[in-house]
Amino acid sequence: MMESPNALSRHPGSLMKVRSRILSMMSLVGCGLGLLWMAHVGWQNGDLTKSTVDDSIRTLRGGTLQDRLAACRELARFGVAAQDIAVPVLIKTLRDPEASLRLAAAEALGQVAFSPIKARQAAGALRGALEDSDPGVRIAAVDAIGVLSGSKQANRDPALEPKIAIDILTEALDDRDVRVRSAIVKALALVGPATNEAPPPPLIMALDDESEDVRANACLAIARFKQGLDPIVARLFQALSRLDPGNRTRCVSALCNIEAASVSSTILPTLLGALDNRDMEAQYAATYILVKLAPDSKQAIPALIKVLTGSVELGPIRWPAPDSGRGSAIALGELAPGTDQSAAAITALTDFLRRADPTRRDGAADALGRFSRDAAPAIPVLINGLRESLPSDASFTPGTSMATALGRIAPGTPLADQAMAALAEALDAKSRWTRLEAVKSLAAFGPISAAAVSRLRRFESDPDFEIRHAAAVALKSVSR
Questions:
Q1: What is the pLDDT of residues 137-164, one digit of tens each?
Q2: Domain holding 73: CATH number?
Q3: Does residue 283 fall inside a structural domain?
């Protein structure tokens, strides 16, 4: 039985306990009401969604053409929430006499059929739509299959098994319309990363299609598969040689993005042949793949040095344009350190750094940094290059790479003081990236770089957080 107010007033602790219990009860009641309200709103929204879906289904079955098209778009907007009711009706609509409706139904199926069962049902109907008389419908069916099998929903695997999609799509690769064939190879580029199988033979045959667009898209699609590319890499380089400049760039990008697990050292002869080619884009792609094959690709070091020295006289080439000089420099930085050919590689990289156009020097500077103190002969060239770059305010200037390289190479060498002096000057560089790397590199010299402390302290209040943080680390290092 609760004590009287007078009794409670004589026991403050008891009063506080009662107040606490009352507040807790009020909080629980409030939470309960909040949950009830949320449930009520969710129930209402669920009813509203079901009502709207039902309205769209009724319209799709018997409205005007424009209303039926709008109903398809509405069902697509609701996505997976509408699939149980919408998929059967959309499948039926794929046989409608009106082509625009068949097209809209195919597009909607790609947005709603996201359970495995519904996806397989939709895929069966979309397979039939690939024989539609209207090429727009066929393209919409291809795109829907690509979406269902090539994209993840809420961190789940794709609704449609990739093998089913590949079988359906490759069956249609002999379509008479080039636009449909191009759409198919684009869809296969979505599906490829989701499977552990090799590219299907019909896709490989598309590398010889009469249409350049199809051939270029086939390159992109094949390069995205994760298995079985060894026998096909040579075909990809051959296809590259037959493309116009715009499509060549896309194909080069695809070759550069081939995953390491999808190739092996058996393709080294093909890559060495590409390096020996005068085609700079083919050389560039080969350098990227060689890096992924490390350490098995070290036999390519002499060929990479040859490409590097042979490209030194080329004019400005700004990243990300393919540059065989930049690519071979990066590859040498990955493959040559610690080998019996490291000295030859350092000599070639230093010469390239000295003579090449400034827009192309960053790769060579990065590569030299990977040799650590073994690249000490390059320090004077790095210092000069860094000083030349200081007036540039470009986002990515070679001075950034040179500052980084000096921090990796110069500490503990006879030229350490000269390198520190150049890095201290770089603290005033116009490029934010060069300033940042100069700060970081000075930290590598430890207490020896104490002369730069006063200049570093200016960055303790720099508005750029990353520079402030790097300055704090550097100051701690040089003050030990």
A1: 999 999 999 999 875 554 567 888 999 9
A2: 1.25.10.10
A3: no
pLDDT digits (tens, 9 = 90+) for 73-96: 888 888 777 788 889 999 999 999
Mapping DSSP onto H, E and C, the string for 371-421 reads CHHHHHHHHHHHHHHHHHHCCCCCCCCHHHHHHHHHHHHCCCCCCHHHHHH
Which residue matches tokens 């009794």?
7
Would you say residue 82 lies in a domain?
yes
Q: Return the DSSP state at 464.
A: -
The tokens for 301 are 């070091």
For 151, other C-beta atoms within 10 Å of its C-beta total 15
Q: Which helix (H) or strand (E) holds 273?
A: helix 268-275
Q: Which of 171, 177, 183, 99 is nearest to 137 (CA)?
A: 99
Task: Give the H or E element holding residue 327.
Answer: helix 324-335
pLDDT class of 42 with cuts at 50, 70, 90: very low
Does any domain span residue 398?
no
For residue 153, list its beta bridge partners: 156
- Nearest CA among 213, 272, 285 for reference residue 243: 213
What's the whole-model pTM score? 0.77
What is the count of structural domains for the chain? 1
Q: Which domain holds residue 62?
A: 50-195
- Three-class SS state of 387: helix
172, part of any domain:
yes
Cα gap 384→361, rounded to integer Å: 12
